[in-house]
Design goal:
The protein is an alpha/beta fold. 42% of the residues lie in helices and 16% in strands. The chain folds into 2 domains: 7-269 and 316-326, 3-Layer(aba) Sandwich (Rossmann fold), CATH 3.40.50.150; 270-315, no CATH class. The protein has 13 helices and 11 strands. The relative contact order is 0.14. The chain binds zinc ion. Zinc ion (ZN) binds at residues 42, 44-45, 47, 64, 66-67, 69, 252.
């Protein structure tokens, strides 16, 4: 799934425009099913005080007054959303045009994730024999993990055909039901940048619980909507995107996980790119507001700029979260309640 880097940052003229054109066609297709859309309570806390926030890319967003989760509603139900993602022309275009240069620029991200997993295992005293990853994309994280030879067997669930050719990596393409039937369980489950695409998070978390060995960590990452970058750039932030149907924050992801019987071991926001993204957005802006002027003062000083990035990381205000949780409570989940208005 698309992560961090904007297509328009690295592609020649015309490609970004084509991506935007295909994305609009995708959204038009989705909106043709508007009569089947569902208007729901907050997917994280199930609260019903969820006023309309804004319209973006023709889709309506609500924000929960209790936990601040931002989500598309009315929006597609899970089956419609999955069908939409499967048929998306914009996403197929993105995958096909991902150049070697960009694959290289993404490598440090996968190395960092593997470093993080190794650190979590060391701190929890775990030597994992088997790991499982939901939505493995092109398999880059599995390749990184396999290269380190620290996990006996690595299992991926990814519907697209992948050819990794690594002896200890197994790729499941038949969907989650087949895995459930096998009753296999793993020493760690990963879901990098996935839960923001899931319409019914309780159902997803129930599935995660079923494949986790008792006491084993679930390690996930997702955008942090309660971040300075996302709040400041608003609809210009790459976090606010049509297929990010649910956008959590440190409070709401904790609420969601605890309601589903997980104990949160840690939440951090280790991002390094917030300040650069704010800078790039300010550089493109023609009109200037007072807060922009103040921000330019900070960004104009190299030391202050680095200090600001560290401050965002340390105070859960950077634009992506990493979460470690253990399922040692009871599952009290349910389908997100319909909103009665
Ligand atoms: Zn809420």
């Amino acid at each position: 799934m698309k992560d961090k880097i904007e297509i328009r940052d690295i592609h020649p003229e015309g490609v970004a425009e084509e991506f935007d054109r295909l994305m609009q066609l995708d959204i038009d297709d989705l909106r043709a099913h508007e009569s089947e859309f569902s208007d729901t309570c907050c997917p994280a806390c199930h609260g019903s005080t969820v006023p309309h926030a804004f319209v973006h890319q023709s889709l309506n967003y609500r924000r929960c007054s209790e936990c601040e989760t931002l989500y598309i509603s009315p929006g597609p139900i899970e089956s419609l959303h999955l069908d939409f993602v499967r048929k998306s022309r914009a996403m197929a275009f993105w995958r096909e045009r991902l150049p070697a240069q960009m694959r290289e620029t993404r490598k440090p991200m996968y190395r960092e994730r593997a470093d993080y997993a190794a650190d979590v295992w060391a701190r929890m005293g775990i030597k994992p024999a088997t790991t499982f990853e939901f939505g493995a994309g092109n398999g880059e994280f599995a390749e990184e993990l396999a290269a380190r030879n620290i996990v006996g067997s690595i299992v991926l669930l990814e519907p697209q055909a992948l050819k990794l050719g690594l002896p200890n990596v197994e790729i499941l393409t038949e969907g989650f039901e087949a895995l459930m039937d096998s009753a296999r369980q793993f020493d760690t489950v990963f879901a990098w940048e996935l839960i923001e695409h899931v319409v019914e998070p309780d159902m997803f978390l129930r599935a995660v619980r079923q494949v986790l060995k008792p006491g084993a960590p679930f390690i996930l990452s997702t955008p942090n909507e309660r971040s300075v970058e996302t709040r400041m750039l608003g609809r210009n932030s790459s976090n606010i995107l049509f297929d990010h149907v649910r956008l959590y924050n440190p409070l709401s992801i904790r609420t969601l996980l605890e309601r589903n019987g997980f104990r949160v071991v840690e939440i951090c926001t280790p991002g390094k790119l917030d300040v650069a993204r704010i800078q790039s957005c300010l550089d493109r802006r023609s009109e200037t507001s007072g807060s922009d002027v103040a921000m330019r003062l900070i960004l104009g000083d190299a030391v202050a700029r680095d200090d600001l990035q560290r401050l965002l990381q340390a105070n859960l205000l950077s634009s992506h979260m990493r979460v470690v949780a253990v399922a040692d409570g009871d599952w009290r989940g349910a389908a997100t309640p319909r909103l009665v208005v």
